[in-house]
Protein backbone atom coordinates (compact mmCIF):
# COMPACT_ATOMS: atom_id res chain seq x y z
CA UNK A 1 0.00 0.00 0.00
CA UNK A 2 1.54 3.28 -1.07
CA UNK A 3 1.76 6.35 1.12
CA UNK A 4 -0.21 8.37 -1.45
CA UNK A 5 -3.13 5.95 -1.86
CA UNK A 6 -6.46 7.50 -1.04
CA UNK A 7 -10.04 6.42 -1.49
CA UNK A 8 -13.29 8.28 -1.95
CA UNK A 9 -16.61 6.52 -1.48
CA UNK A 10 -20.10 7.82 -2.18
CA UNK A 11 -23.33 5.82 -2.12
CA UNK A 12 -24.86 4.99 -5.49
CA UNK A 13 -28.39 3.76 -5.01
CA UNK A 14 -29.55 6.48 -2.60
CA UNK A 15 -28.17 9.19 -4.89
CA UNK A 16 -30.11 7.81 -7.84
CA UNK A 17 -33.31 7.54 -5.81
CA UNK A 18 -32.92 11.03 -4.34
CA UNK A 19 -32.25 12.75 -7.67
CA UNK A 20 -35.23 11.00 -9.29
CA UNK A 21 -37.47 11.81 -6.31
CA UNK A 22 -36.34 15.45 -6.27
CA UNK A 23 -37.09 15.86 -9.97
CA UNK A 24 -40.49 14.17 -9.58
CA UNK A 25 -41.36 16.39 -6.61
CA UNK A 26 -40.58 19.57 -8.54
CA UNK A 27 -42.65 18.34 -11.50
CA UNK A 28 -45.62 17.41 -9.28
CA UNK A 29 -45.57 20.75 -7.44
CA UNK A 30 -45.24 22.64 -10.74
CA UNK A 31 -48.22 20.79 -12.21
CA UNK A 32 -50.16 21.39 -9.01
CA UNK A 33 -49.27 25.09 -9.15
CA UNK A 34 -50.58 25.41 -12.71
CA UNK A 35 -53.92 23.95 -11.60
CA UNK A 36 -54.30 26.58 -8.86
CA UNK A 37 -56.46 29.14 -10.64
CA UNK A 38 -59.70 30.91 -9.96
CA UNK A 39 -61.73 31.18 -6.76
CA UNK A 40 -61.06 29.12 -3.63
CA UNK A 41 -64.30 27.31 -2.95
CA UNK A 42 -67.20 29.67 -2.17
CA UNK A 43 -65.59 32.72 -3.77
CA UNK A 44 -64.07 34.67 -0.86
CA UNK A 45 -60.55 34.37 -2.26
CA UNK A 46 -58.79 33.40 -5.44
CA UNK A 47 -55.45 31.93 -6.36
CA UNK A 48 -52.98 34.48 -7.68
CA UNK A 49 -49.69 34.20 -9.57
CA UNK A 50 -47.84 34.50 -6.24
CA UNK A 51 -49.66 31.43 -4.90
CA UNK A 52 -48.52 29.44 -7.92
CA UNK A 53 -44.92 30.60 -7.51
CA UNK A 54 -45.04 29.77 -3.80
CA UNK A 55 -46.22 26.26 -4.62
CA UNK A 56 -43.32 25.78 -7.06
CA UNK A 57 -40.97 27.16 -4.39
CA UNK A 58 -42.26 24.57 -1.91
CA UNK A 59 -41.49 21.86 -4.46
CA UNK A 60 -37.95 23.20 -4.91
CA UNK A 61 -37.36 23.32 -1.13
CA UNK A 62 -38.69 19.78 -0.78
CA UNK A 63 -36.37 18.64 -3.57
CA UNK A 64 -33.42 20.29 -1.82
CA UNK A 65 -34.38 18.36 1.31
CA UNK A 66 -34.24 15.11 -0.68
CA UNK A 67 -30.85 16.09 -2.08
CA UNK A 68 -29.40 16.38 1.44
CA UNK A 69 -29.34 12.58 1.40
CA UNK A 70 -26.86 12.64 -1.51
CA UNK A 71 -24.29 14.39 0.71
CA UNK A 72 -22.66 11.38 2.48
CA UNK A 73 -19.08 10.61 1.54
CA UNK A 74 -16.02 8.92 3.02
CA UNK A 75 -12.48 9.93 2.07
CA UNK A 76 -9.43 8.26 3.53
CA UNK A 77 -5.70 8.26 3.00
CA UNK A 78 -2.68 6.95 4.87
CA UNK A 79 -3.03 9.52 7.68
CA UNK A 80 -6.72 10.17 8.25
CA UNK A 81 -10.32 9.37 7.42
CA UNK A 82 -12.94 12.01 6.64
CA UNK A 83 -16.61 11.11 7.09
CA UNK A 84 -19.40 13.36 5.82
CA UNK A 85 -22.90 12.23 6.77
CA UNK A 86 -26.28 13.83 6.01
CA UNK A 87 -25.72 16.28 8.84
CA UNK A 88 -22.24 16.65 10.26
CA UNK A 89 -18.70 15.93 9.16
CA UNK A 90 -15.76 14.39 10.96
CA UNK A 91 -12.05 14.23 10.24
CA UNK A 92 -10.19 11.69 12.33
CA UNK A 93 -6.59 10.49 12.35
CA UNK A 94 -6.24 6.71 12.06
CA UNK A 95 -4.74 6.69 15.59
CA UNK A 96 -8.21 7.11 17.15
CA UNK A 97 -9.81 4.35 15.05
CA UNK A 98 -9.91 0.85 16.54
CA UNK A 99 -11.58 -0.78 13.55
CA UNK A 100 -13.97 -0.58 10.61
CA UNK A 101 -17.26 -2.41 11.25
CA UNK A 102 -20.03 -3.52 8.96
CA UNK A 103 -22.21 -5.74 11.12
CA UNK A 104 -24.64 -8.19 9.57
CA UNK A 105 -28.02 -6.52 9.18
CA UNK A 106 -26.63 -3.01 9.75
CA UNK A 107 -27.83 -0.36 7.27
CA UNK A 108 -24.33 1.13 6.96
CA UNK A 109 -20.75 0.68 8.10
CA UNK A 110 -19.22 2.45 11.06
CA UNK A 111 -15.86 3.31 12.56
CA UNK A 112 -15.18 1.89 16.00
CA UNK A 113 -13.14 4.40 17.97
CA UNK A 114 -10.76 3.76 20.86
CA UNK A 115 -13.11 5.58 23.27
CA UNK A 116 -15.78 2.94 22.47
CA UNK A 117 -17.82 5.30 20.29
CA UNK A 118 -19.21 4.22 16.95
CA UNK A 119 -19.16 6.74 14.11
CA UNK A 120 -21.67 5.79 11.38
CA UNK A 121 -20.53 6.10 7.77
CA UNK A 122 -23.77 6.60 5.85
CA UNK A 123 -21.86 6.59 2.55
CA UNK A 124 -21.19 2.85 2.95
CA UNK A 125 -24.75 1.56 2.75
CA UNK A 126 -25.85 -2.06 2.67
CA UNK A 127 -28.14 -1.19 -0.26
CA UNK A 128 -25.05 -0.67 -2.44
CA UNK A 129 -23.97 -4.28 -1.86
CA UNK A 130 -20.56 -4.87 -3.55
CA UNK A 131 -19.65 -1.18 -3.63
CA UNK A 132 -20.05 -1.02 0.16
CA UNK A 133 -18.11 -4.25 0.71
CA UNK A 134 -15.22 -3.03 -1.45
CA UNK A 135 -15.25 0.32 0.35
CA UNK A 136 -15.06 -1.35 3.76
CA UNK A 137 -12.22 -3.59 2.56
CA UNK A 138 -10.30 -0.57 1.25
CA UNK A 139 -10.76 1.27 4.56
CA UNK A 140 -9.60 -1.80 6.46
CA UNK A 141 -6.48 -2.02 4.25
CA UNK A 142 -5.64 1.63 4.95
CA UNK A 143 -6.23 1.13 8.68
CA UNK A 144 -4.10 -2.02 8.72
CA UNK A 145 -1.31 -0.27 6.81
CA UNK A 146 -1.36 2.52 9.38
CA UNK A 147 -1.26 0.02 12.25
CA UNK A 148 1.71 -1.70 10.60
CA UNK A 149 3.56 1.60 10.24
CA UNK A 150 2.92 2.37 13.92
CA UNK A 151 4.22 -1.07 14.96
CA UNK A 152 7.34 -0.68 12.82
CA UNK A 153 7.94 2.78 14.28
CA UNK A 154 7.53 1.49 17.82
CA UNK A 155 9.95 -1.39 17.25
CA UNK A 156 12.55 1.01 15.83
CA UNK A 157 12.84 -0.42 12.34
UniProtKB/TrEMBL annotation:
InterPro entries: CFP-6_PH
The entry's keywords: Membrane, Transmembrane, Transmembrane helix
Membrane-crossing residue ranges in chain numbering: 16-33, 53-74
Pfam families given in the database record: bPH_6
Domain Low molecular weight protein antigen 6 PH residues, every copy: 71-141
Protein name listed in UniProt: PH domain-containing protein
Organism: Micromonospora thermarum
Lineage, top ranks: Bacteria, Bacillati, Actinomycetota, Actinomycetes, Micromonosporales
Amino acid sequence: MSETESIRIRPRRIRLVCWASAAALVVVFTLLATSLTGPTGNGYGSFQRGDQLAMIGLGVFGALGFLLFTRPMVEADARRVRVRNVIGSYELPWEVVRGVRFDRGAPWASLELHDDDLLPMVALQAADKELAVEGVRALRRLHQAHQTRLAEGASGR
